[in-house]
Amino acid sequence: MYIEQLLLKNYRNYTELEAHFENKVNVILGENAQGKTNVMESIYVLAMAKSHRTSNDKELISWDKEYAKIEGRIKKNHGSVPLQLIISKKGKKAKFNHIEQQKLSQYVGNMNVVMFAPEDLNLVKGSPQVRRRFIDMEIGQVSPIYLHDMGRFQKILQQRNHYLKLLQTKKQTDMTMLDILTEQFMTLASKIVHKRFGFIQLLEKWAIPIHEGISRGLETLKLEYKPSVDVSEHLDLSKMLEVYEQKYFKVKNKEIERGITLFGPHRDDLLFIVNDRDVQTFGSQGQQRTTALSVKLAEIELIRSEIGEYPILLLDDVLSELDDYRQSHLLNTIQGKVQTFVTTTSVDGIDHQTLKEAAAFKVEAGKMNRIQ
Ligand SMILES: Nc1ncnc2c1ncn2[C@@H]1O[C@H](COP(=O)(O)OP(=O)(O)OP(=O)(O)O)[C@@H](O)[C@H]1O
Ligand SMILES: [Mg+2]
User: Which residue's CA is minimally distant from atom 31 of ligand 1?
Assistant: First the structure.
């Protein structure tokens, strides 16, 4: 799929923008602080209804304005579809094919993107929270049910934590209510973790050969989902639920004592293993970068295998960070098959056929014009 047209109104430093894109590499050039990342972010937000940079949607609205609007026309295998997202101080409204979607979980997934930005190094280096967010966003793109379950899970988790606080402070003593909340909590937890295991397995399958290519055959990558409870990918849903039940039985008193939920997918992690060592702890900066890049490129293939078309690739400020070999490896992988947006302050030193054939845009103070 590719984005043919993008319209912005009151989006960050863009008062008004209309841009047309082709299904190829689009280079976005500009000095610092002119609005390159803002354009990339707007495409990401149009797809995911969430920014990759902030969880505060209000930041996306131009400073002195009431609302921001992003519109796009996406060309897919079976035709062209319009998407629209309005962000106001009250919340978000999303339209797919001119029809307002009651739930954002129904809207997300109509357009697929993969973003690779410098902060994605945090995927490997950062906290488990970063990795869980990555897993959730990416499964969400290909599975609306997962997004829906995740939303319900967050609610139940909050309720359960709230109830555990009441038990802790003895404002409540009724244990039946805790059992009921826990039953719902564990049912959703098993579903979520089951799905995550499957996703990680698939992602690993795509990431292994890509990583091998980028590291010139010198390194092997493994992905390992690390649950906070002793479940494994070999268990089916009902067996998983049993493991959760046993865990609940064990930690119940401690949970009441502490007033908080101590097990579940919100405490799980993902490990990246390179040549049998955890790359978060033992990897060099370069190995961590290669790992993050392999995982992102694997995601492109995973999305294609799941939905039957390539997603749109957004490369913000990353090309110049890669050495020549990784740069050309990346550009060779996407060449001719993935609509790609690349931002950079200068194309000097990036010598690749793909960029010579690319469309180029210049961004200056919240305006973007095609220059090639
Ligand atoms: N809500 C907002 N309203 C108006 N302007 C904003 C808003 N949020 C951010 N900006 C401005 O947008 C400008 C451009 O930001 P952006 O991150 O897109 O720059 P960039 O071109 O990617 O720069 P760099 O090369 O440094 O990454 C910044 O100067 C910032 O002050
Ligand atoms: Mg930027």
Answer: 33
